[in-house]
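FW: tagging you since you asked about this chain on Friday. Here's the raw sequence from the shared folder, copied in full. Didn't touch anything.
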Amino acid sequence: MEHTSPVDDLEQLLAEEGNNPFADLDQELNLQPSANSAMNRLRDIPVTLTLEVASSQISLGELMQVTTGSLIALDEELGTPLQVKVNGQLIAYAEAVAVDGRFGLKITKLLDDSPKSR
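HL: got it, structure written out here
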């Protein structure tokens, strides 16, 4: 089964007749109604991509005692896939890699839109 990205799914939905939420705006701006013009506007919207390694709950008192060199145990084991989130929504799992001397992500699993996969 071929997996499509959320962007591909949205492009297909917008391409279907009557599904363009930007149709009024396209008409107002005298643009040809098309999925491409709507999709191009969506592609430029900035989103925040976050890589979540792990977390830990500690008391405020413990936090106040943290100094340079303090160690804090996290709730995930080494080797656990990292969570990739867009605007706080989990979309994939990944591993950290080096890309031209900087941190990067290698996506290991993309999640589909069904709640059971999250």
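FW: Residues 114-118 have pLDDT under 50 and may be disordered.
HL: agreed, and Residues 31 and 37 are 8 Å apart (CA to CA).
FW: great, closing this out.
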